[in-house]
Design brief:
Length: about 220
């Protein structure tokens, strides 16, 4: 069984450094998320969203962010795709374009695609197959944007938005309700485009977490 890890494919991927901890043990190509202190960790099947793909092992981290050991992460924009490993028992004939799939962990890496929905938890990363199976490498191309069904309940999103910080609520409103570009938001709030991208990223994470909290209440 191949173990190449997730590999960014088509689309406008963004590459950014994120701090991690000495306790992290994820591998290059693993699907990642942030913990409650905004440090990198491997994606869990109970997460409702993911951050991106590790471009190196956690043990190969480089000190670049505030003096903390950090790892380069590939962040998917809408329309991005990635190659994922195919787990044992999933044949090329059982995978077709448009089919729902899940990303889950096999061995030491969270990078394997499976069409067996039983592998998924309530929050598991649901992706869509967009390319044929590469039989020589046992990989398949997937839509890299994790299912965002947590945002489908408009009333719940509205309530969660009220609980966010003013800065987070503002950038989300400008981006998704007023349909402004990154550059337009930067001009409105008087910050650079990089700051806007970072703030949007953390605002979406905060919104998802608040939605999960409200759902569990």
């Amino acid at each position: 069984m191949a173990e190449y890890g997730l590999i960014p494919a088509r689309g406008n991927w963004e590459y950014r450094w994120f701090p991690t901890t000495s306790a992290a043990t994820f591998k290059k190509g693993a699907l990642l998320n942030l913990d409650d202190t905004y440090l990198l960790r491997e994606y869990l099947s109970t997460d409702s969203q993911c951050l991106g793909i590790a471009m190196s092992n956690s043990t190969a981290s480089t000190v670049v962010v505030g003096g903390a050991a950090s790892v380069l992460v590939a962040l998917p924009a809408p329309g991005c795709t990635a190659y994922s490993d195919i787990t044992t028992g999933v044949t090329a004939s059982s995978v077709s374009v448009g089919q729902a799939s899940v990303i889950y962990k096999v061995g030491n890496i969270m990078s394997f695609a499976s069409t067996v929905m039983g592998q998924a938890s309530r929050f598991s990363a649901i992706v869509t197959v967009v390319g044929p199976v590469q039989t020589d490498t046992s990989q398949v191309e997937d839509d890299a944007n994790v299912d965002s069904s947590a945002f489908d309940n408009a009333e719940l999103v509205h309530v969660a938005l009220r609980d966010l910080s003013v800065d987070h609520r503002r950038v989300l409103t400008l981006r998704f309700l007023e349909d402004m570009s990154i550059e337009e938001i930067a001009e409105v709030i008087g910050q650079g485009s990089g700051t806007v991208k970072s703030r949007l990223h953390y605002a979406k994470l905060a919104l998802r977490r608040r939605i999960e909290e409200l759902t569990d209440e």
